[in-house]
Amino acid sequence: MPLPRLVRHLLGALGASGLLAGCAVTTPPPATPPAFTVTDATPSPLAGQVFEPASGRFVPVDEALARLAAADFVLLGERHDHPDHHALQAFVLDALVRAGRRPALVLEMVDEGQEAALAAWKAERGASLDALAQALDWSGRGWPSFSFYAPLFATARAAGLAVVPGNWPLARIRTLVRSGPDAVPEAERAALGLDRPLPAPAQADLTEELRASHCGMLPETLLPGMAWGQRARDGRMARALADTGPEGGVLIAGSGHTRRDRAVPWVLGALAPGRSVLALAFAEVPDGQQDPRAVPEASAAPVLYDLVWFTPPLPRPPPCP
């Protein structure tokens, strides 16, 4: 644990014991997560539980929060359209703040071309969250309802957290997909942790995931560029986290960007060696499912996430015709 973090935790312990009279006492994190808004006809007993894939054990929520509070970088992987994933992300961020952490908030949904809009909103006292949504053109950029993410911005503002863009502008992403590695100068590739190839199994798995996510209808010639675009986004998010300073950061992103074997945690291993990373995925568990290993995110070979927080599934139409 870095010295500043250690000192802060020691001071927090002293304050909790009453030995620092007159000093602010860190408020403990809330013990009860928010109730699920998505319900099942046959709910799984796994919903609401936190699972550790590496050990195969269930982890109490309080223990999970303590581990999250101790990590330099916390990665919270979501299904973008699932309201309960967003409610739990807000719960975790609030718990970290209550535990004395002041991490930067890094979001996949905000790109580096929107830094000025973020700064203007933060500087204008009393500016509403609706004003921020308009400044970021949230509804026009294809993300789910801003109401899902508003509690994160509200906590960040109340706690004085930096809000950091985690993504490339859309035009740059299109160039990355079209032109591949040639679209990124060599020095920038190194700064983004993109100067080393993925392990062959991870690269093959990424390509297959992209193929399946497009229902097998994507021309094979486009897959290498799509895979590079995904890696470039991982590098951009990892760089944003690595630059957050001693307080570290919390990443809000799709769970494909937060898996340990090939995404942001893998890149952070090169960009921020020696700093701790905890990757948590919020994962939908099918109706009635009782085996945690049946949920793909809870795989043990390879281990994709440090922790998996199970939620009910959100009803959706079949993804492929």
UniProtKB/TrEMBL annotation:
<keyword id="KW-0732">Signal</keyword>
<dbReference type="InterPro" id="IPR007314">
    <property type="entry name" value="Cofac_haem-bd_dom"/>
</dbReference>
<protein>
    <recommendedName>
        <fullName>Haem-binding uptake Tiki superfamily ChaN domain-containing protein</fullName>
    </recommendedName>
</protein>
<feature type="signal peptide">
    <location>
        <begin position="1"/>
        <end position="21"/>
    </location>
</feature>
<dbReference type="Pfam" id="PF04187">
    <property type="entry name" value="Cofac_haem_bdg"/>
</dbReference>
<feature type="domain" description="Haem-binding uptake Tiki superfamily ChaN">
    <location>
        <begin position="65"/>
        <end position="268"/>
    </location>
</feature>
